[in-house]
């Protein structure tokens, strides 16, 4: 399962981003506060960070520099309102892996996320999983039993993926919660 940290101070945009990424079966932790985001980055591992450039305490470019200065190599997508090309260049030079201008089509963001994940997630983590007649494809976020597609919620998909990735492992409740549910 893919775990994403979303840092967006606009509640409406944050909710839309979280809903979009949940639809694609990503586990998303969404925060509006840069300090809280920094604490989460120090405590947990994420597969990707999506952040707005206009954050109240510290702008996204400065936060990106801070993340990179602490040797955190997690891919970063910066989202910004239209601005001068120099701002985009500064963001990419600060360590962002991608820079997307608002307004953007939701599927474009998802395609960019998939592209970054293909480069950063080890190949073993994107293979399909089979268990009897059950087939899980993490790339297409599809689960099939025989020839029938199973309509799973994002949490059901993530839980099934966790169990199929680690078939011989028993997980404690706290490990499952840490891997699949965002911090409150």
Keywords:
four-stranded antiparallel sheet, Arc Repressor Mutant, subunit A, 184 residues, 2 domains, Rossmann fold, alpha/beta, 7 helices, globular, five-stranded parallel sheet
Task: Please provide a written account of the structure.
The protein is α/β, with parallel strands linked by helices and 184 residues long. The chain has two domains: 3-120, 3-Layer(aba) Sandwich (Rossmann fold), CATH 3.40.50.2300; 123-180, Winged helix-like DNA-binding domain superfamily/Winged helix DNA-binding domain (Arc Repressor Mutant, subunit A), CATH 1.10.10.10. It contains seven helices and nine strands, in the order E-H-E-H-E-H-E-H-E-H-E-E-E-E-H-H. The protein has helices spanning 11-23, 34-43, 60-69, 85-93, 106-120, 154-165, 173-180; strands at residues 3-7, 27-31, 48-52, 76-80, 98-101, 129-131, 134-137, 142-145, 148-149. Strands 2-1-3-4-5 form a five-stranded parallel sheet, sandwiched between helices. The radius of gyration is 17 Å and the shape is globular. The two termini are 19 Å apart.
